[in-house]
TrEMBL record:
This is Dienelactone hydrolase. SUPFAM superfamilies: alpha/beta-Hydrolases (SSF53474). Keywords: Hydrolase, Signal. The lineage of its organism: Bacteria, Pseudomonadati, Pseudomonadota, Alphaproteobacteria, Hyphomicrobiales. InterPro entries: AB_hydrolase_fold, FrsA_esterase, UCP031982_abhydr. PANTHER family: DIENELACTONE HYDROLASE DOMAIN-CONTAINING PROTEIN-RELATED, POLYKETIDE TRANSFERASE AF380. Residues 1-22 form the signal peptide.
Length: 370
């Protein structure tokens, strides 16, 4: 659920304030491109676009990762002093054919490029992944008061879907019968909302009264949010019928879901949780928490241990933990004893790919075209 990530937010906002992309890697820039003998590293394609959304006063930044059929120049997406980035082929032509589409929603204070480790691997398995930076809850722009408007996050994803379906380059390549939504933490809340989950303000108020020490409730209180006067729009029906399956990774706020909406969510759902050895109460969908996994009509639940909520975030650089410690920020680079973040990521990728019926190995869907 929400975390301060103040240092990371500052660093990321500085990076985003510059050019949209980092400089091309020297060995793969257009000027340096030469035929190379031997196997070529399989990379996904990457591009950005702006989303005009009626519910927003500003354009929503969007991105798309996809199976590439050509090689342009490779750059590293989402790299910053805390996290390693992910290499991608900017603007490469997409593979022909029909590809499943995944709408991706980042967690509170996160951003679309920070999840490149996941987006790129799903693209290499044949999917197109469309993500956004949610205004008001993204890196460098994360407000407790605006976080309560979970309906706007879901609408961001619907607007992104409208935009990519209408795009002449990507729209014709999308299999409209296989559109999934995937979210982490507050992003998990958003995609549940998008799939028909209805959140009740009174139930969330009661949850924060009972579990006042949980990070989401603490975050809201620090912003002066009045739990007796949460925005009415939290309860809005923002279901998008185009969504045919759902992946929610450690979703928050599930205590507030109405019983009726849970029963009505008949689409296939994959729930992923972490625990070292026990999960945060705020994101616990097992029988020891909200039991969302047991109450949904068609849910698959998988727990990955040892890992914490933050283990889902990108691979940290060696100096990342020290930088966060010096700034007294959340220990997002510290994993529990016996945990390996790269291994946890691999298990997440495999679980999502299997659930969505994607290729079983990275590069299997695109290696022949690189």
């Amino acid at each position: 659920m929400p975390s301060r990530l103040s240092l990371l937010a500052c660093l990321t906002s500085l990076l985003l304030a510059g050019s949209a992309f980092a400089a091309p890697d020297e060995a793969t820039s257009p000027k340096a491109a030469v035929p190379v003998a031997g196997p070529v590293e399989p990379l996904a394609g990457y591009d950005r676009f702006d989303i005009a959304a009626a519910h927003r006063a500003v354009l929503v930044p969007g991105s798309v990762w996809y199976p590439a059929s050509t090689r342009t120049y490779a750059i590293t997406i989402g790299d910053n002093p805390i996290f390693h980035g992910t290499r991608a082929l900017v603007g490469a032509a997409a593979q022909e054919g029909q590809h499943p589409l995944i709408l991706l929603s980042h967690g509170s204070g996160g951003n679309m490029d920070s999840l490149g480790w996941l987006s790129s691997q799903l693209a290499l398995r044949g999917a197109m992944v469309v993500a956004v930076n949610h205004p008001g809850t993204t890196s460098g722009d994360s407000s407790p008061r605006r976080t309560a408007r979970i309906d706007k996050r879901a609408k961001d994803l619907s607007a992104a879907l409208d935009t990519v379906l209408a795009d002449p380059s990507f729209g014709p390549l999308i299999d409209r019968s296989r559109i999934a939504a995937l979210g982490f933490s507050l992003g998990g809340t958003a995609v549940i909302d998008l799939a028909g989950g209805r959140f009740e303000r009174s139930k969330y108020r009661d949850y924060c009264q009972r579990f006042s020490d949980q990070p989401d409730c603490v975050f809201f209180r620090k912003g002066g949010v009045d739990f007796d006067n949460l925005p009415r729009e939290m309860e809005a029906d923002v279901r998008d019928p185009r969504i045919s399956s759902l992946v929610a990774i450690e979703p928050g706020m599930t205590d507030a879901l109405s019983d009726e909406s849970i029963e009505a969510m008949t689409l296939p759902v994959l729930l992923l949780g972490f625990g070292a050895p026990d999960p945060w109460r705020a994101v616990d969908v097992s029988a020891s928490g909200t039991d969302l996994a047991g109450r949904l009509p068609d849910a698959t639940y998988e727990i990955i241990r040892p890992a914490t909520h933050f283990t889902f975030l990108g691979l940290c650089k060696p100096e990342g933990a020290k930088l966060l410690e010096d700034e007294q920020d959340d220990p997002v680079c510290t994993d529990p004893e016996g945990s390996d973040r790269a291994t946890v990521h691999a298990r997440v990728i495999d679980a999502v790919a299997s659930f969505l019926g994607l290729a079983g190995q990275p590069g299997a869907a695109s290696a022949d075209h690189q």
